[in-house]
Amino acid sequence: MNAGANHMESLDGLAMADLIVGNSTAIREIRGLVRFAAQTRASVLITGPSGTGKELVAHALHRASTRAAAPFIAVNSGAIPRELIESELFGHEKGSFTGAMARRIGHFEAANAGTLFLDEIGEMPLDMQVRLLRVLEDQKVRRIGSNDDVRVDVRLIAATHQCLESAITHGRFRADLFYRLNVLPIELPALADRIEDVPMLIQHFLSRGFASDNPPVFTDKALALLMAHDWPGNVRELKNLVERAAVFFRGMEVGVDQMTMLLRPSRSARAAAVAAPAAVELPENVVAIPTPMAAPPRFSRPMDLREHLQNEEKRVLIEALASTGGVVSAAARLVMLQRTTFVEKMKRYQIARDVALSA
Ligand SMILES: Nc1ncnc2c1ncn2[C@@H]1O[C@H](COP(=O)(O)OP(=O)(O)OP(=O)(O)O)[C@@H](O)[C@H]1O
């Protein structure tokens, strides 16, 4: 193995499989493509739906390449105001336009010797696409207000969740830039199309998350729910779910009820708020709460503020219990109370623990 290849596999001590996690055929092929691309300096176009790991793959590619010691600059093309794109990418000289108080180096110069990752390339305005193409061909940039070119050695990785071929057909993307970027295409599939990666990704996120010393344990049935979910937000959605589980259910078992709540947190919380008090068969000594979403106070008649606040507090406690499938310690964490304080309040308001479960 030569020095370059050695460097390529080292990734600061991490293996590529620790970074781009998964064992599906698709992910294994992607790791192979990334290793291959890292040995070249050709432009790479990464496509795939939002949250599938495009930026992660770009970063892994940079870290596996001989450029790893130089900067990796990630730029979201869609997030830069149109009038600032040129200056952001190519820089400007002092006084070159109103507001240019000092010389500014653009992202291309900042990424010199390293990698520039242009996310959401499909959002790039057409005139900037022309500029970009020229820079890629000449490897030179010119700051706004300057007469001199600056030579840059930048490896470009672009990404998009859009279909650029269709953007070309509709005149929104230049075909010549597309071919210049698409030298090495990497296509990331939706998580639902590589569902077998879910358990490994869960372990990965648990081992790196907030509760890595005492993570929650997902039951087989809870895991089955995750394997049946369609993951519209892809890996990002799974990561967020695992992080929520780690916060609310630290060291606890996460079963079907809790998982259902985690998969639909806002909807279930809403349902609990609206349905719980009316739908639940409460024990005799338990008081039902009149209006779950307390109406804004109106002062056509006197209002008892203390009673109003207590009703609000009851409602929030019930909502927290509903969100966690009735797990008291998790509900307490949700509203930033000690478990003992939460239990005291449940007693005071005569809230039954199973109120939430029938939400
Ligand atoms: N295979 C994977 N292994 C480990 N983590 C992953 C994997 N895929 C994605 N992630 C993680 O999921 C999150 C979303 O990934 P990333 O931001 O790279 O997606 P993206 O496709 O660039 O999204 P967007 O199109 O919205 O910008 C990140 O925290 C990333 O680290």
Tell me about this structure.
The chain is an alpha/beta fold and 359 residues long. The chain folds into 3 domains: 3-189, Rossmann fold, CATH 3.40.50; 193-263, Helicase, Ruva Protein, domain 3, CATH 1.10.8.60; 275-359, Orthogonal Bundle (Arc Repressor Mutant, subunit A). It is 47% helix and 10% strand. The chain is built from 17 helices and 11 strands. The chain has helices at residues 3-10, 16-19, 25-38, 54-64, 85-90, 107-110, 126-138, 164-169, 175-181, 198-208, 220-228, 234-248, 256-263, 265-279, 305-323, 328-334, 339-349; strands at 44-47, 72-76, 91-92, 104-105, 115-119, 140-141, 150-151, 155-160, 184-187, 217-218, 253-254. A 5-stranded parallel sheet has the order 2-5-8-1-9. Helix 3 (25-38) packs across helix 4 and helix 14 (265-279) packs across helix 15. The chain is elongated. The chain starts with a helix and ends in a 10-residue tail after the last helix. The structure holds adenosine-5'-triphosphate (ATP). Adenosine-5'-triphosphate binds next to helix 4, helix 10 and helix 12. The site of adenosine-5'-triphosphate has 18 residues, from helix 4, helix 10 and helix 12.
Quick description:
This protein has 17 helices and eleven strands. It is an alpha/beta fold and 359 residues long.
- CATH class membership of the largest domain: Alpha Beta
How is the main sheet built?
5 strands, parallel
Helicity, in percent? 40-55%
- The rough form would be described as elongated
Strand order of the largest sheet: 2-5-8-1-9
- Please tally the helical runs, counting DSSP H or I stretches of 4 or more residues: 17
Q: Which topology of the largest domain does CATH recognise?
A: Rossmann fold
Ligands bound here? adenosine-5'-triphosphate
Helix/sheet category: alpha/beta
Stretches where pLDDT is under 50 for at least 5 consecutive residues are 1-9, 267-297
Number of domains in the coordinates?
A: 3
CATH level-4 homologous superfamily of the largest domain: P-loop containing nucleotide triphosphate hydrolases
Q: Radius of gyration, Cα only, in angstroms? A: 27 Å
- Overall mean confidence score, pLDDT: 84
What's the N-to-C terminus distance? Answer: 60 Å
Strand composition percent: 5-15%
CATH architecture assignment name of the largest domain:
3-Layer(aba) Sandwich
